[in-house]
Hints:
This protein has helices at residues 2-24, 41-51, 61-76, 131-151, 172-177; strands at 81-89, 95-105, 113-119, 158-164. It is an alpha+beta fold. The longest helix is centred in the first third of the chain and has 23 residues, at 2-24.
Amino acid sequence: KKSYSSILSVLFILGFLGFTFFAMMPQWTSDDDAPLAEFSTKRALEQVKNISQKPHFVGSENHEVVANYLVEELQNMGLETSIQEGYSFSDWGTLTKCKNILSRIKGTNSNKALLLLSHYDSAPHSYSKGASDAGSGVATILESVRAFTYNKKQHQNDIIILFTDAEELGLNGAALFV
Length: 178
C-alpha cells in the first residue's frame, strides 16, 4: 500500500508540474488579420525572412543587397532616407568603412528625439544569415515604424531610425554615428 501512495504522489507532482509548465508557455495568436495600424508579428517575420536569406557581413555582395532593401522599405513608408558613410576605428582595433542608414520622422517640437537603433550586418561567417543578430531587431523597427506612420498621429519628439553597419566588427557604425 505504501508503494502505491508514493507512485501516486510522484505522478500527481509530475502532472502538476507539467500542467504548470504548459500553462505558463506563451500562447500563439494569429495576427493574420491584424489591422495595418497595429504591429503584426507576421509582417515582421516576413521582414526577417527578406533580410536573412543569405549571410550579409561587411564586404559581402549581400551586404549591399540588404542595405538597399532597407533604404527601399523606409522610402516605401514615405520616409526620406540618408546614408552616412565614413571610416571608423573601433576599440577592437578594426578600421572599417561603414554605411549607416538613417531616417527621421519629424515631431511637432524637435527639442528631443527618440532613437530606434539596430545593426543590419550579419556576423562575418559564411553560415550566419543574421536572422536573430540582428535581423529581428531591424524587422521590429521596420514593422513598428510602418504601423506608426500608417496611423499618422501627431507626436512631439522626432523619431530617428538608425540601422548601423559593421557592428559585428566592433560597433564601427555606431561609433561613426556618434
